[in-house]
Fold:
Amino acid sequence: MDLAEFLFWTVGALTCLSAVMVAAAQSIVRAAVWLLFTLAGVSGLYFLLGADFLGAVQLIVYVGGILILVIFGVMLTAQGPLTSIKTPAGEWAISLVVGFLMLGLLVACILATSFDTFKPTTIIDDPARARTATDLGLVLVGVKDSQVQGPADLNQVPGRQREGITYVFPFEILSVHLVVVLIGAAYLARAKRRRKEQA
Amino acid sequence: MVDALIGFLTHPVVVAVLAAAILMGLMLVQAIIFVWLERKVAGRIQDRLGPTRVGGKFGWLQTLADGIKLLCKEDFIPAAADQFLFRLAAYLVLIGAFLPFLAMPFGLGVVALDMNIAVFYILAVLSTEVFGVILAGYGSGSKWALFGGMREAAQMVSYEVPRAICVVIAVVATGTMSLSLMMQQQEGFFWNWLLFRDPFCFLTFWVFLVCITASCKRAPFDLAEAESELVAGFHTEFSGFRWLLLFMGEYGSMFITSALAVAMFLGGWHTGLLPHDPTYYLGGFLGNVVNVLVFLVKSWLLVFVMMWVRWTLPRLRIDQVMMTCLKYLIPISAFLLLGACLYPLLWNTFAPGTLQLRSPPGVPGAPPPPSGGLPLTQAEPGSAVLADRR
Amino acid sequence: MNIGLTHYLILGAVLFVTGLVCMASKRNAIGVLMGVELVLNAANINFLAFARYNQTFAIEGMVFTLFVIVMAAAEAAIALAIVLNFYNNHVSVDVDAAEELRG
Amino acid sequence: MSNPGFLYVIATLLPLASFLLLFAGGKRWPGRVGGLIAVGGIGGAFVCSLIGFLLFLGAMPKHGHHDDHAKGAAVQATTPAAGSGTQPTATKPAEPGKEEAAATKPAEAAHGHGHAHAHADDHDHDSFAWKGSLSWVALTGFGSDDGGLDIRLGYYIDSLGAIMFLMVTFIASLIHIFALGYMSEELQPTVEDHQAHVTRKGRFPRFFMWFSLFCFSMLNLVLADNLFQVFVSWELVGVCSFGLIGFYYERQSATNAANKAFITNRVGDAGFIIGLLILWTQCGTLTFHTTTETVTTRSGRQVEKVKQLGIFDALRAPEHDTHKDPIKEHGQFVRVRHITEDDDHLLQMNPAGDHVVIWDKATLNGHFHGPDEKGRFEAYLSDRDGGHGHGMKTMPYWMLVLAGVGIFLGCVGKSAQFPLQVWLPDAMEGPTPVSALVHSATMVAAGVYLVGRVYPLFAPEVLLTIAYVGAITAFIAATIAIVQTDIKKVLAYSTVSQLGFMMLGLGVGGWVYGLFHLLTHAFFKALLFLGSGSVIHGCHHEQEMTKMGGLHAKMRTTSLTMLVGVLAICGTPLFSGWYSKDGIIVAALSFASLNPEHMALFLLPLIGAGITAFYMFRLWFVTFTPRDEHVYEHAHESPRVMTVPLIILAVCSVVVAWGPRPWDVQGSALEHFVHHSQPESLKVDTGINLNTAVLQAEPDSARAENVIANTFARDSWLHPLTVKLGWGPHDLAGLLALVVAGLGVLLSFAVYYWRVFDPQETRERFPWAYDLFQNKWHFDALYSALLVRPTLVVGYWCKAFDQKVIDGLIHGLAHLTVLVSRFDGKVDNGLVDGLVNLTGRVVFGVGDWLKGAQTGLIRNYVLFMAVAAVGIFAVVSYVLAMAG
Structure:
């Protein structure tokens, strides 16, 4: 068992456990904590998958951003009984049954599928040449694939030699979308003045 | 025998464990030194007695005594506290402060994990520290702690934004997110430092300094632990070893953010007085010793500056703190980012060749100077890498 | 035993189902939101796993993941704003209180 | 003022301004203010016209027939005409000129006119005029080679325009002033109309409003420099006459008369429009005279270029080098025919050719170099060279004739010529000042003026038509006038008759005399009408002459001034009518002498002149001399405001046509002035130059003696008269006219003063003639039978068809629709609504049952989705497994 394998099993198991705990936790704050571990674990998995940049993004956005936001939401709405609202056991049971059905279905599909035709991206295994963040950035700012002077085997793949595949437009839309969401969220969450109180 | 030993030592797991141990040691020892230093600085600046008078030479024993006292204190958890969260909080803070050390190069190749996104990674990991603070505040079951935690969280999250923008400015200026490369680019005399590269970077450094001070909840931004109002903020209920962990986390993050500032703006391990890296003159090992020392000294100097500020300036109100960030620092840093982007572009467009990224001449695989316009070509990763990932 | 694509996919499936169950069983609105985050993370793991184990998907997988993360952030912001609004109106975060649309 | 033409524009606009003022606020102003505004407008116009006239006199080219030259010259030149003894000296030198004329004669033989005399009379007589225009309507892409129709508003003031302006404004001013008095009844708040038996409000301002518009229209017509502007004014004149004739619109007779005038005029205007359309489509322009501009060519020379093509220049040959050119005459219609045998676009000049050449801008600008020696040139074929070739454009000759007849038809309607003369006597229904204005200066003058203005457009055939129409009108109207007893109707028929004289004069080539008579006639006819108005006013709106008599004692001023008018219209020597009427008779005689087959053109007006003298004196005697049976007792003289214009007009009627030597019938200054505007084509077309102008201009030259103005043409059957007695046309015609008029006067004296004959007896002796005249030659009956009744019958048929068939059909359809709707309503309510309701109920039930699934709980929805995913997957995989 080498380091990567060890880390996968460890991190994967912790992640799954944390995720289950998220679903199982009665207190919403604890659920948030377990979610923190889950997200951190997922981030670790990203690192294991060679996506350093996305791992960092996962941390900074999810842990440093979303989760904080969630906690704020909890704090702003936490009133004694509300932190833990019980769900009827029957519904729990139904959810679990459906969940397991779903899981069985998915696992069956995964196991039934053969991924032999895929060729792994070997470049990621070589840290000296791993420049995934660079390629990602260049693709996002609109440099075409053919101009990306990335690692050789990224460009040698036949499917990757398509001209003009860039993500600058989705990237821009995403930026605008973020701004809109920011304004929209602020609008939605603003303290509303009630006329009755004024009167 | 020797081969076996070398083979064992270079086994990745062993290397990882060793690196972690060394860095953890560094952090812990530093914390002790910082506590002592804090006392000395406070005493000198504010004319306080105590640390300067007692505890051996320069009062260093006092710190030791403090440590022993804290270790021996009762591990007290309030009845109203959420035990699980209360315990977790301190560890989270410490972990958040420690993880950045892994990606921080102390010398040419002296780094646990030479990531090509090191800067970003450090920012990301630092941001998890907030969570510990919040949990500490919430888990204590005390309204002082809760208030403190919320304030602290708001403040840290807010200051993350200008801090990140400042980092982005440095990234834009150097063209890489790898700290090793950044520092290699600043080789040579001190005018090669990013601080003096252009006016925008110069201003960025000071903004960054304010931001790291605030995000380390240091005075004058220490509203989270405002003693007069909130008793001690989020760590009101903490004592003994848990309190010690919290403080080690704080000093750790002080150091690591200072080191980040040094690495990005102040030339990293370069003295700024020699045309080349010390390894160029002294060979790999000795040169790196010099490098590490220079880097540590620079970082400690910045930490000293932060203490100096703490004992010099009065505390702000919480609204003033937030206003400083949201109304001033964010616009300023955004403007600086714009300027830092346009500055080389304009120079290279209207007077090609007058402004070039400096490349360290001695380092193999140094980035070639850009030919003008947008720096599309990218630097190759550094040559020497200690940690090996599979 | 080498870690392969299948392992990551199963891991993703587990996360996905957990998120689903979380969504279905939590009555706290924020809990539901957490379930959603889990599901999104599961999807991201799949994307990155494919990016890692399929050359032709190397860049795309990462780009999609990035987009999903950003969208998730936006979604969380909006969702929390809605929750706050909901709380303002119902003095509760129990999603079962939001049954005005019941048939 | 750089261009005094603007004076005339102002003069035109002043009445328009007063019209607008009255239109806007006429009712609000008390008393005579409205009338005074109108008087001010027309008076201002008169002042402007007077100044303009004087400026025009000063600006006229001196080498023409200026008075300074004329004074000295007239003595010499008119000697042969006045004194009969010296005739042979004038005859002999004329021979060489006639030789020349004979040589060129055959070319023009087809026209029936000689043109040789005009050829001799080639004094450079470039008619002087003030011009100016601005674009009004510009339509591009309408066919013409200039790129479209450009209708302009402009003024063209030559000597004719200037004198017409002066005459119209002067007479109109006097009539306005007269009307101030005449219409004073309308000043009362309520007026009782005895004829219509109603009481109504006074309409004093309204009357003057129409008057102002009338004057504006007439002035604008005179001012116009293109046919379209003329047409616009033409219609405005018609509208105004309609409004004024029907001024007492409570009276059935007045409205009928207004309608009659209007509709009759429409008939004429239809012809006018056809003429306009033909001219525009063929020539592409409606402007009278060509405008040129100076252009600097590439070689730096200053060249005159045609800017705006005039319609006359489009039809008449341009100036050219006569030595080289087969086109002999400047100003002739160039008739051609197509040479079809060798090349279908070659034209050859031919006096009997069926086409007329149209000279367009390009050819006038020198792109065309004329026909070759055989008279051939290339035809203009627009589809071959894109309309920019150097060939010629042509139009069919019959179309030119049609255009001329059409325009003349308009003039026939407007000037009340045979056969459209019926409206003018009826128009007496309007107030008397209206009659005066209509009969002297405005409406009827418009027709004659237009014929004079567009004279170069008329082909010889058209001229002949004009002449005949004029002669017939003159005669018929005169005969009708004999038996009329209404004082105004007598005058009306005399007007018709005089207009016939003018038309005749124009038609036979006496262009100058036709218009000259128009001018003089305006004065004495205005005088006569105003006098009759005065009489009517004095007799409390009694118009029947039979009820009058002996008014001379009571209305001395009116009586005497009217006597002046009567003398003038009879052609008494030294009165203005003498000069002009003599000219017309001379022209007719000359024409007849050259064309004996058209002798009627001389005899009819001659007899008409005699009848005129008879009935005019009859009018005066019956009205003013005492009679036995009835004397009008309550008559009184009119107020000053009415008599003063009468006196002024009376003076004018005498002196207006005088020249430096009033006893010389050819020496009228007015005539000479009009002569300046005589179209040059006249010389080519008729060859009759009856004017002495050349003699006056160049009294000493040999050429002047060649002019046979006062001799009969050599091939005339009256030529021996010249040879033997030395009598020219003037001598013979003048003598005849005087004799005939004298006979008429004598007869009148005999019947109505000395009572030698009893008119009643005569009436009974010639009942058929009396019937014929009394019923106006049965024209009204004819029109009624031919046009009005059939129209009415058709109208009744249409009405019946509309009421019975169309309405019945529509009503039937409506009933059917109602029935169908009732049935449809039942189907709709029962079947369709039932189906719809059933569907609704079913959907409602299903929805009600399904709504249970919508719990409103997000958690449940998530579960549903998961279950659905599992279920769909299971089904799909099962199906796939089954499939293979």
